[in-house]
């Protein structure tokens, strides 16, 4: 096997995982990682469509444990695939994808909790406000497949909806992520659009239509949808927004931008596999005039940008991401830190055949300063029998991992996840 895309078939529990190096003092908790994992005999025609599987790895006291579970049972209906992200909110792990409401899981067992949240399309990338504890969300196609309606809202710390509104976009765009500041949300409406003859809801019928142009919607948090402001945006595509903030005059958002989206058909029905995304900064004036201003941040090729979430929505200086070091290779081969103040990149390359997952930042201590902590990522290569969890000092990525945990099986290419401090898997409780 030369790629890390094929699914796995086993749900397993394991403890006492092999460890190289030494777990950092104070790194205690569980990493939850979500991704699509088609079941045996079920052929989803697009990588994004496999049902979600959570991989959970607990770290603490020099002991490491692992559990993986499909989010939903085989015969579940109506809850989507829950295959893109896993976050912690209101006491539960939320398994997320953008077409359905979150699926709530018990952090210690990965069993369903039965908790329910705002029904309807709910982004895979809601944003926590570190000051209020609110979880800001949105959902596209809010009135059904192909609709132009977008819903925006917020859940409080307890998971109860405290605000929701709607507005109509120029077309039905695949809007994967949202920018959130203390006062505003911003949504890129880019021309990866649902086709008019798309068939049923199970069809992943989005295609690149550059003739539709790019748009950016900006709305004050808590406002009514009819107050949305529209800006002309570049005709590009971005899956992921790294962070956003604002000053008196402008709103800023940083994102990884493709000239055209990979894995989706273009005007000639060709589906490109390996496109390059580069980090750039967009900004708009608060007075609502003029197009989006674009500033390149670096010429690196990367994706899956993360930050120290304690400063989300504020001005910041470090992006943690994956990096493509070997042109033409599928996936990403390096963990990287992009220093925005100095325009410098600090990265560790696992080799041309490696598949590296999104790095997750964990503070060194509860009261550690910004960007003082660890990066956790999963890596697999054809010469690895299983995947490995690698742990970096976030300030010295090029020095290589300070510790590496060998997992009991391969973790296929997936998308996103979160680390929850001082929460551990309970392997004594069978599911």
From TrEMBL:
<keyword id="KW-0479">Metal-binding</keyword>
<feature type="binding site">
    <location>
        <position position="125"/>
    </location>
    <ligand>
        <name>Fe cation</name>
    </ligand>
</feature>
<feature type="binding site">
    <location>
        <position position="176"/>
    </location>
    <ligand>
        <name>Fe cation</name>
    </ligand>
</feature>
<keyword id="KW-0560">Oxidoreductase</keyword>
<keyword id="KW-0408">Iron</keyword>
<dbReference type="InterPro" id="IPR004294">
    <property type="entry name" value="Carotenoid_Oase"/>
</dbReference>
<dbReference type="GO" id="GO:0016121">
    <property type="term" value="P:carotene catabolic process"/>
</dbReference>
<protein>
    <recommendedName>
        <fullName>Dioxygenase</fullName>
        <ecNumber>1.13.11.-</ecNumber>
    </recommendedName>
</protein>
<dbReference type="GO" id="GO:0010436">
    <property type="term" value="F:carotenoid dioxygenase activity"/>
</dbReference>
<feature type="binding site">
    <location>
        <position position="416"/>
    </location>
    <ligand>
        <name>Fe cation</name>
    </ligand>
</feature>
<dbReference type="Pfam" id="PF03055">
    <property type="entry name" value="RPE65"/>
</dbReference>
<dbReference type="GO" id="GO:0046872">
    <property type="term" value="F:metal ion binding"/>
</dbReference>
<keyword id="KW-0223">Dioxygenase</keyword>
<feature type="binding site">
    <location>
        <position position="240"/>
    </location>
    <ligand>
        <name>Fe cation</name>
    </ligand>
</feature>
<comment type="similarity">
    <text>Belongs to the carotenoid oxygenase family.</text>
</comment>
């Amino acid at each position: 096997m030369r790629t890390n895309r094929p699914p796995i078939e086993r749900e397993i529990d394991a403890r006492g995982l092999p460890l190289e190096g030494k777990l950092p003092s104070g790194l205690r908790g569980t990493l939850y990682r979500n991704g699509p994992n088609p079941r045996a005999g079920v052929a989803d025609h697009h990588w994004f469509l496999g049902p979600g599987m959570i991989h959970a790895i607990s770290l603490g006291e020099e002991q490491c444990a692992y559990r993986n579970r499909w989010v939903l049972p085989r015969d579940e209906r109506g809850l989507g695939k829950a295959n893109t992200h896993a976050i912690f909110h209101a006491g539960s792990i939320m398994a997320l994808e953008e077409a359905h409401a979150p699926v709530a899981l018990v952090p210690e067992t990965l069993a369903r909790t039965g908790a329910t949240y705002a029904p309807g399309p709910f982004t895979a990338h809601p944003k926590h406000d570190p000051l209020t504890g609110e979880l800001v969300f949105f959902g596209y196609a809010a009135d059904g497949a192909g609709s132009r309606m977008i819903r925006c809202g917020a859940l409080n710390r307890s998971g109860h909806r405290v605000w929701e509104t709607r507005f109509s976009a120029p077309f039905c765009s695949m809007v994967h992520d949202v920018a959130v500041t203390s006062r505003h949300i911003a949504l890129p409406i880019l021309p990866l659009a649902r086709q008019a003859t798309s068939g049923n809801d199970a069809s992943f019928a989005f295609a690149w239509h550059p003739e539709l142009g790019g748009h950016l919607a900006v709305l004050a948090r808590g406002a009514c949808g009819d107050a949305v402001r529209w800006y002309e945006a570049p005709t590009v595509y971005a899956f992921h927004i790294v962070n956003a903030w604002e000053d008196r005059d402008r709103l800023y958002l940083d994102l990884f931008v493709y000239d055209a989206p990979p894995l989706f058909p273009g005007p000639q029905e060709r589906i490109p596999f390996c496109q390059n995304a580069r980090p750039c900064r967009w900004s708009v004036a608060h007075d609502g005039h003029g197009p989006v201003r674009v500033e390149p941040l670096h010429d690196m090729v990367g994706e899956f940008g993360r930050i120290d979430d304690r400063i989300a929505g504020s001005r910041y200086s470090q992006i943690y991401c994956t990096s493509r070091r070997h042109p033409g290779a599928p996936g990403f081969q390096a963990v990287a830190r992009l220093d925005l103040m100095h325009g410098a990149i600090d990265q560790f390359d696992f080799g041309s055949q490696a598949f590296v997952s999104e790095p997750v930042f964990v503070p060194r201590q509860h009261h550690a300063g910004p960007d003082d902590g660890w990066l956790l990522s999963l890596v697999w290569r054809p010469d690895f029998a299983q995947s490995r969890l690698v742990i970096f000092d976030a300030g010295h990525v090029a020095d290589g991992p300070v510790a590496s945990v060998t997992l009991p099986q391969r973790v296929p290419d997936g998308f996103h996840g979160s680390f929850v401090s001082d929460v551990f898997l309970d392997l004594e409780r069978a599911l």
